[in-house]
Amino acid sequence: MEYKAFTSRNFRTIPQIANLPERFRKDMEIVAAVLPFKSNSYVVNELIDWENFEQDPIFKLTFPVREMLSEEHFKSIEQALDSNMESNQFKSLCNKISLELNPHPAGQLEMNIPVLDGRKIEGIQHKYSETVLFFPAQGQTCHAYCTFCFRWPQFSGLEGMKIASKQSNDLSEYLKAHKEVTNLLFTGGDPLVMKTKILEGYIEPLLAPEFDHVHTIRIGSKALAYWPYRFLTDTDSKDLLRLFERVTKSGKHLALMAHFNHPVELSTKAVKQAIRLIRSTGVEIRTQSPILKHINDSAHAWAKMWRQQVALGCSPYYMFMARDTGAKQYFDVSLENAYNIFREAYSKVSGLARTARGPVMSAAPGKVHMVGVSEVSGKKVFVLQFIQGRQADWVKRPFFAEYNADASWLNELKPAFGEEKFFWQDDFEEMTRIRLANAIHQDEE
Hints:
The protein has helices at 15-18, 22-32, 41-47, 57-62, 71-82, 87-99, 108-111, 153-156, 168-177, 196-203, 223-226, 237-249, 269-280, 299-311, 328-331, 335-347, 425-444, and strands spanning 5-7, 38-40, 115-116, 119-120, 124-128, 131-134, 183-186, 216-221, 253-259, 284-291, 315-321, 357-362, 366-376, 379-389, 399-402. The protein is of the alpha/beta class. Among the domains are: 5-99, no CATH class; 363-445, no CATH class. The strands form 3 sheets. It has an 11-stranded mixed beta sheet. α5 (71-82) packs antiparallel against α6 (87-99) and α10 (196-203) runs parallel beside α12 (237-249). The protein is globular. 40% of the residues are buried.
């Protein structure tokens, strides 16, 4: 299959879209003015049920619909388009709305950008001591965009919002200076949109003895779900698989962190063949997804997805909560509902699929696991713990929040039992104060 991308500029040329009522096409244009939109020929022709597009999960996963913006934001854009607003004014309006959608949640810009020799290292995030995230500039797009994407500012054109680096030297120098780092995650966007030669230029130097402390390399990618032909028929597919094999034969662990949001993405011959080829190189495939209303908010969907993944040799990894950014209000599932869905799905699969953890909030203090709902002294409470924390001592220490049936994120929770703060809050607030003060000082220099 030939790859063809569809964006807000050419999506009307898709035959299936041309058959839809004009109101749907107009709605797409309005929403896509704020939230980045991109699909492709594989998603359109092999994953979406166009006979039932209004309820189809993959359609909603990749195509913008009206409800992804608030009514106020939607009408502002609609009126601007109808009045032929001057382009600079229109761009300013779109940027204003984008900034109201919390474009960088969890302190990504303020808290995670590291410093080396007094200089901010752009394109790197270092939130947990043993793990570094690297954003190669050439990988800051995807084969298609998810409508829930928590990194949508990477594609939006908002000034100062993109995290990216072309400097592999910065990465090498930072890793040499931080021997505590054992895991490196290439992320984006999607690093596998890059040509293999470019990806190789980032990875090959890390196989040298001076980087022996980095024993695991991860690649976060949606390519298996949105363009499995990346591993099958792209001009450098074989080169990519050979690169994977060189990494694993060097003694390093290479993991593909695959994003699958619905069982349909695991159903095609192409994705099954791609998974077999990747696994034959010694790469481990771990799977993760947020839980999303309209997409996969049922125990049936998750149990089916986990069973399919295990059958294909993949390891279920995380059920995340949708981050508090972009179109979160459209995809929102409460913590309690997510927990109940996870628990029911978990009960329907074998032990090999019970490697999944969830529901988990990847919040500013760390990855917070919703362990369950319990009752203490006659009161319902949420039981939580850190799977990862900005401070290692926080990990696996249970803490309790007041029961809140509507809460879907950490900042909506209050400590239980009359406590003023959660046990970790004072430390986190002090970390935040110090990081922000240092950031201001560096900017002034």
